[in-house]
Design goal:
Blueprint (H helix, E strand, L loop, with lengths): L1 H19 L8 H52 L42 E3 L8 E4 L12 E2 L4
Antiparallel strand pairs: 1-2, 2-3
């Protein structure tokens, strides 16, 4: 009986301790607001840098694609003696145009001409203003936005 009373007393003490500390089980509103404020500060400081890196990577990707088009156009030129006309465009690198005599394509590994990283088609012009051809991407603004123009290297 004494052992039973000791056990019962011990259980009562544990239960009373649990009741006394119930309010410590969760977070207060102030603690939650502090954590949200800290997360907001981190996002406010880091977010613009991440977005800047994203826009820089799109520009680099467009330049790499333009270089790939340039290499494919040079192969087309070696086979046919001329660059594809503006009317044929860059699709002449994946589909044989009617004017091509010795077309050994496709000159691009993909089955179609990819669009720029912003989802706009590349602008191909023959003859170019400063080179035999020009390949341009107008960036996020699309056609007519000369502020974000990405142009093929002049030859």
């Amino acid at each position: 009986m004494v052992k039973r009373a000791l056990r019962f007393g011990r259980l009562q003490r544990l239960a009373s301790r649990a009741r006394n500390h119930e309010w410590e089980a969760g977070f207060t509103l102030v603690e939650m607001l502090v954590v949200i404020a800290i997360i907001g500060l981190v996002v406010g400081l880091v977010g613009p840098r991440v977005l800047n890196y994203l826009s820089e990577s799109k520009v680099k990707a467009a330049k790499i694609q333009i270089e790939s088009f340039s290499a494919a156009l040079d192969l087309y030129y070696l086979d046919n003696g001329a660059y594809p006309g503006t009317g044929d465009g860059l699709t002449a690198l994946v589909e044989r145009p009617p004017a091509a005599l010795a077309w050994n394509g496709p000159y691009l590994k993909t089955g179609s001409v990819p669009v720029d990283p912003w989802g706009h088609p590349y602008v191909y012009k023959v003859p170019g203003d400063h080179a035999p051809y020009e390949i341009d991407s107008y960036g996020a603004g699309g056609a007519g936005n000369s502020q974000s123009l990405i142009r093929s290297a002049s030859r």
